[in-house]
User: Fold these one by one.
Assistant:
Number 1:
Amino acid sequence: MADPEVVAPVAPEDVNTPAARLASYIRGGGVTVPLLTALIAFLIAGLVVLVTGHNPLTTYNAIFNGTGLNWLFPWTSGADRTAAALNLQQTLIATTPLILVGLAVAFAFRAGLFNIGGQGQYTVGAIVAVYFGSKFGGMPHVLHVFVVLVLACIGGAIWAGIAGLLKATTGANEVISTIMLNWIAIWTGVWLFGLGGPLQNPDTPSVPISSDVTQSAKLPVFWGNPQLQGLHVGLFISLAVVVAFWFLLNRSTTGYEIKAVGFNPEAARYSGMSVPRNYVKVMAYCGVFAGLAGGLDILGWQFRIATNDVLTSDIGFLGIAVALLGRNTASGTVAAALLFGALKSGTSQRNLDPSIFDPSLATNLTLIIQGLIVLIVSTDVIALRVLRHARGLRRGRAAPPPAAPEEART
Amino acid sequence: VTSQQRAGWTGLALAVIAAFIAVPPALVRSSAPSIVLAILAIVGAVAATKSGESNLRDVFTWSALIASMLRFATPLLFAALGGIMSERSGVVNIGLEGMMLMGAFFGIYGSDLLGSWVGGLVVAIVAGGLLAFVHAAFSISLRADQIVSGTAVNFLALGITGYVFIAHYGDTGTPDNISRVPDLHLGFLGGDSFFGNIALAAVIFGKWKPAGALVATLLFGFSSALANRLPTFSASTAVLFQALPYVLTLIAVAGVIGRSRPPAADGIPYVKEG
């Protein structure tokens, strides 16, 4: 992905925003570093599998089949193909919100902000969607879906906007405030749908769960059986948002300002941009993305929220991994979301063949892989070193490596 | 809406308002008055809840509540002190909860393997320390972004503990007959949620000072105790006390610049000159 970059107006050592530091990540290594990162993570996780007495190759093969990506192979046929289609639908259902929460984190990064609050914004979007989706049953289908999704976006935007506003007005660190907002949203959700809570389903007083979304607010399924959780049109909505993200960031004044603020707030201020206003704006956009993710999950396949869903969901936290592996670009985010979505569905109880590898073990393996990927992404030193070593072997040691100044900074 | 719910709501509103007064914009320099006020706020919340229900005294006694508070506060305080050490030395520690999780699980695991709770504690310390070592190696030696590597460490802790848990105990949970310090039973490890960045919140609310962290963890421990004890008579509102520490911390951070402010070089990788 060839994103035109804003050139940092001053030497990088004078700015210490995450965006400035990440600028060097994006410059160095192209698509190779993320690929290498994922490869190293899978290798280490494979070692864990091996050490605990399983065969990593058959395990990974079973997980791959669980993702349904073998549907893409023309030689998969018969019953295998039917199963693969079902699994692939699950993978893409999981990918849909991951793309959006990934964008929510990536967008903030480009403005020099670290949005850890994807989980809270996603939760607020889901709460808003389930509330308005379970009401107004008589509304026309398309209108109802549209209204609910817009409200979910607004909910997320307001929630994220709080962090932006606090940063703009009081200088409160957005990392801290978004973490706090995550847990406030989560516990509020548990309260709302918990026993005796204000939004608990009145028909099932002993179950801590919300009311169901009405038929008129459900997203249509375009692949697979709607009764078997087929693939809903939310995937297209999130891909459309990716395109919008790209245009917003690379072809609009807003995007230019946001990137300028990200690289150097001081320089942006001197060139007449309002840094505080940009902080609020950026966070609101992030909330729109993450809130929409929550809305799509509710209208697409969940249709209701139990308090347990609120507590155990990790979609928003995964958004951090998606954005980092995708290098905060539009296309990278889609690719990373597909990887994490595939991992999620490939290791699920529903998709993974338990005779080869225990799914409850595999879901934890997924967490290990995610952790390793984020860990390796946190410093590009490792990947760059491997890369440079490989290049060095090819070229000899005549010329100094071109990315040397960046390495000193990261 | 029942009377208990209304009482709980009043209590919560009181607590939040009092906390707002407790962290005034630029008025108080010392952290002591704000913390005292915050404690009063919680006590007020309890009193408000109490006034809603006459038979409340029978349901929970103060001693039980205090015991519960200390139980929640003790591990939090250790974690918060660790957090202060790393943050004051310039390394942001989002991974605190992951280190706690490692300690919690491997404490049980070690106690089970070695048959003694002392051994369990040693294993817990080593496990938490190993995870902290990973965080340190990446954020100090490899100059990684500290927030990112802290996030990674949390994912890793969840994955590692979950993996060993399932591989060793299966889906059923830890056995009951483990050598214990007091009463420990890990029911919560089955789920895959972070159990809140509450130690981190305590570090921040305590303004990166040990004494502040002590009071913050007691306060948050009390809040958790309320959340766990109140459901006996008011199921729905009690859970909101779980959110209270985060609300208080958010208010403290937002109070005004300089109220709850991280160490100056927190989060910036140190590079030797020359």
Number 2:
Amino acid sequence: MEVADQGRAPLSGIRVTDFTWAWAGPHGTLLLSMLGAEVIKIESHARLDHARLHSLAAGTVSDDLDESPLFNDLNLGKLSLTLDLRKEEARDVVRRLVARSDVVTQNMRPGVLDRLGLGYEDLRAVKPDIIMLSSSAVGATGPEGSYAGYAPTFACMSGAVEISGYPDEPPSPLSGAVDLRVGTTAAFAVLAALHHRQQSGEGQHIDLSSTEVMSSMIGEAFLEYSLCDRRPQRSGNRDSAMAPHNCYRCRAEKQWVTIAVGSDAEWSALRSVISDPELGDEAFAGPVERWRNQERLDSIIERWTRQREPREAVEILQRAGVAAMVVHTGASIGSDPHVRERGVFETVVHPKIGERQVVRPPWGLEGVGVDRPAPMIGEHTEYVLQEILGLSRDEIDRLEEAGAIR
Amino acid sequence: MRTGALAGLSVLELGGMVAAPYCAKLLGDLGAEVLKVEAPGSGDPARSRGPFPDDIPHPERSALFLYLNTSKRGVTLNLATETGIRIFRELAGDVDVLIEDRVPGELEGLGLGYPQLSERNPRLVMTSVTPFGQTGPYRHHHSHHLNLYHASAHSDPFHLAFGKEGRPPPKAGGYLGDYDAGLTAAIGTLAAVIGRAGSGRGQHVDISKQEAMMCMERVDIGRLTNDPNPQPRRVVGGLTRAVDGYLMLTPLEKHQWKGLIRAMGEPEWSKAEWCRTERGRLEHADEAREHIDRWAAGRTRDEIYHRCQAEKTPAGPVRDVAEVREWEQARAREFFAEIEHPEAGTQVYPTAPYRFSRTPWAGFAAPLLGEHNQEVYCEGLGYSQQDLARLAAAGVI
């Protein structure tokens, strides 16, 4: 990272034909694009990526296909090629493009691409070492292989939602991050397959289940069930062993800090900051006692935090060696001094939306960054057909007449 | 030689708890040769963290450790000794990857930082996984999963919309944020390994858990960073309560909404004008919700799930871990596998969410503390049995 932005991006020279849409799939290819791959997003006016229209996050609907900030955030740096896959001429373009690609990604309902003659076996025939990743709600095989889902349903079915939230409230359905976890896992799987191809020359197909992604990220809960015969329950911000372990209110309403104490050293550090004599009580003598009496403990700590601003409290606690942090909202994190100093946000200029702050790639790798906004729909159709596939003007005109490239 | 997509890749792990060990596990489960280095005596803190059977602590029976350390060999090594540092340098001398989670600057102080190790092994990819990264004012801040989760703006989006007034946002269950960081680190690591084929040299990958988590929430963080006055969030559907538990319905697209209405038996209210457009449905989200809740209250999760799915409408029951284990789809896909471990017995583990057509998942049981000392130090580095005894007596291993 000493020479960041100077070297070649790790995936430069890798081309991805990308059929994914919505959130999860595009986030996976966004990561590949950030790593230097050329990602060609196959879109169609006949079958729009609904992220161009909807903003599920904001609850808004737009009519302009090129001004969705949500779409921009998930498709930075990609190229857009419009193809109506119902037309044989369009499917022929796909085959030609795949023959010049390293990776194909898709998250349509299992079987859809196969019925179009663009399944793994078909594409392998035109590019024997192709790597193809298919992502779906519950995996492409099994009795429910054709079932559909979005992030909230994957998360619920995985076991992760049941253990998230307060015990006396309905479970927390988590957030859009669930989709992005699926995409991140897909990017990891593609990299592993690329490594294998680098070593052996072999491509392969990868069948990814979004629900299994979330289950594997709470793996220890399944082991607890197997090994200890217990089903973990949701516990708000509390921990099964550590105390104190919670969010504590600061001076102003809706302002919180987290404090977590996991060792005797951390407990002593906390006591050195909060001088309240009540903390010397027998009830807080050891970790077991502190855990048992944590409600009382919490109210003593909150007496202290309520007199302070979040950053002030964190500074005092961290200086003493206590794990404490500000509870950030999406709106407040951009002004965090550490986040600013590390340059976590980059500015991208989008022709319709204007300047956008976007979260940069999370690895600090050489040659990796964000250099372009998301494409306008069909923005690179000509480029891909002419420069990558070498089609003539006549051939492109014929595709246009056939309605294949819209 | 192991099989799998990452066969032939050698990885040294100096990690504890969740993030760095998960990164190394992801690589090991796909065939990489992972060697985990632990402190003599107590080992990875996950060994003492549990959960344990009957709540009785035992370093070889921690569910957390057992899951996060599959597909690794393990040695003990004391980096507080000169000899321990020398041996670590030998181990790092010819590996492809080092994954570590020490406080920034600590390894460099021991002569084991990236500049020092890469001098001897220029192809080394060194991945450092820390709460706030190698630079910046918080680089030495203490942080447990709770702190990091809330410091990365993850708890905010849904709580803002649905949380109770006056109550702080709850964290996600388990260690989700640490898994995010481990997964992100695995991508950075593999990308650097792949890029190395062209450049001939490795690099130092700086993973800040906070940034890894922020990247997972990039849509909402982006939205709120760019728009100081966001519109209130509305969704059609959401969590509803069936007879036997909660269920999620997401009839986002037109055909999915129509599917839901068919599944509900085309009730009279669904013929209202507002039901026809997405805007209308969003504006009447509360009303739609009341109708859905009333309908769901008389049915089981499974009935609603299969009925909606038959109409191509996304629905998903909230399941606990036992229910996921019993789920027919998980069984048919063999998502869970039995793995035998000498101290923990045969247990059921989640495998991986991806099926590679050529290179299957290749997981095996986590190592006992110091299980491979002899294999690695004697057979690998050429120490004698006497040396091994001497190193043990000196507290080096």
